[in-house]
Amino acid sequence: MPKVTARDALAYSLKRDQAQFAEEAERLAKQAAYIAANPPADGRSVSGDITRLMQEAAFLLKRAVTIEAGLEAVGLLNAEAESTE
Q: Residues near 38 by Cβ (< 8 Å), separated by ≥ 6?
């Protein structure tokens, strides 16, 4: 049975995070398209829609930063593994 390293576990976790990021980004794009297609009008306010869009964008930004940090960590772990082989 092959040994699972921290690098392997992190890489697996990153793949899941990247898939979740893609789903969330698609949902965010659909929300933005809905807002664009339904601008403010008499009896229609979009401030709540925009607030939710901003909240979702903030969560997406947090996930992006986490993924980027994880990718950097995997790169460092790969470099370390190569230098010890």
A: 44, 46, 49
